[in-house]
Structure of NADH-quinone oxidoreductase subunit:
Amino acid sequence: MEDYYGSYVLVAVLFGIGVAIVAGALTINRLLRPTRPTAEKLTTYECGVDPVGDGWAQSQVRYYVFTYLYVVFAVDAVFLFPWATVFDAPGYGVTTLVEMFVFLGFIALGILYAWRKRVLSWT
């Protein structure tokens, strides 16, 4: 049982060392850097172009929905590839097939909901 907890202690010690290294590097950087703020340095930088007008721009919610749909399909792909490798292993056939169809059913319900709300139409 001591080996079991010893591995957790080792992970905690390594995590602490990592945090100490990062904190030390940031502290040393803050102490050694030159600080000469000017008005020109404090202005907003936009790819070499001087900022003009208000910094706020309204964007349509539709773009966020397409982003969410992309994430859904990406997660779907991430789960499909390992499933395909396990499906071929002996003893997992019917169980993994049912689980994947349940998962794909949830994905299909989400897409059907988005389609019914007319989110998927691009105008």
Observations:
- The CA atoms of residues 58 and 64 lie 12 Å apart.
